Amino acid sequence: MFIHGTGLLQYSDFVMQYQKYFEVQAFSMATSKLLILLSLQVIFLVFANGQGLKVGFYRKSCPTVEAIVKKTVDEAMSKAPTLAAPLLRMHFHDCFVRGCDGSVLLNSSTNQAEKDAPPNLSLRGYQIVDNAKSAVEKSCPGVVSCADILALVARDATFALKGPFWKVETGRRDGRVSSFNEALSNLLPPFANITTLKQGFQQKGLSAKDLVVLSGGHTIGTSHCSSFTNRLYNFTGKGDTDPSLDPNYIAKLKIKCKPNDQNTLVEMDPGSFKTFDEKYYTLVTKRRGLFESDAALLADSQTMAYVKLQATTHGSSFFKDFGVSMVKMGRIGVLTGSAGEIRKVCARVN
């Protein structure tokens, strides 16, 4: 649901990456499943409620942090507003792998970090996070985590595109581990059905409402054709199209996306992909969401009801709901207190 595009990978290659991961892991998972579940439960109980986070955590130690980050983001958005969507998604992807600990920002000399995994190859805007971190370090050295800066950047990038503004809880610490395989196993793919989506969110302590609300982030940004061309040309392996996608929209998409197109970008919310608004929900009701995960929202009574509500009331509660769900997501698996570290440079551990 969070994967707007898959970089230069073909859809089939993307699916194979996921399948290969799970095939390789099958044996070890069979023998250690219980231990993993117990470990996850412990981690969830200790960290998932966001204990230690609060609005204004740096009020005394770095009172200008939010102003510094906002200035950096505003300057970047004035020049490259299309970076807002990847920055928002970067925060999503960070939180869904090892919790909101800035691990998506870490580099790997062997290309085995989260950012090297297929779902993250199309993330952009790392330099904006780095610039914000550098500016904050000049004012408050060694105080503010990269995880918190990323959370603030995501909020400010959303607001810069006329989206909602919410109070960001801070106090996160940075993780020291970033795993390619963990990104593959935790990030939900664009071809996920409603059962997979709801389970994936539930595992992170998020609800079906959070799922449909945060899906609204697809109102901004673009996607590579390779993330959805299977819906246009070979949905079930028989050269067919996805029946859940509007046939007229399929015809338009086929003009832009040829069968093996890996590079063309398509607006996710045509006509307003640089403006954060509620029009995504109108598209979904018209069966014009780009991804299978968008269409899946109509396969569940609760998520479908929310989609139709926002589409018919011009997003009456969407902005407020989005802020609430972003705060909830920002609490996933956080490191606080003496756990983790405060990185000096976001791309590497101290």
UniProtKB/TrEMBL annotation:
Any single Gene Ontology cellular-component annotation: extracellular region
Domain of life of the source: Eukaryota
Disulfide bonds: C62-C140, C95-C100, C146-C346, C225-C257
Pfam family of the protein (one): peroxidase
Residues binding Ca(2+) 2: T219, D269, D277
Alphabetical UniProt keywords: Calcium, Disulfide bond, Glycoprotein, Heme, Hydrogen peroxide, Iron, Metal-binding, Oxidoreductase, Peroxidase, Secreted, Signal
Stated role: Removal of H(2)O(2), oxidation of toxic reductants, biosynthesis and degradation of lignin, suberization, auxin catabolism, response to environmental stresses such as wounding, pathogen attack and oxidative stress. These functions might be dependent on each isozyme/isoform in each plant tissue.
Name this polypeptide is given: Peroxidase
Native organism: Escallonia herrerae
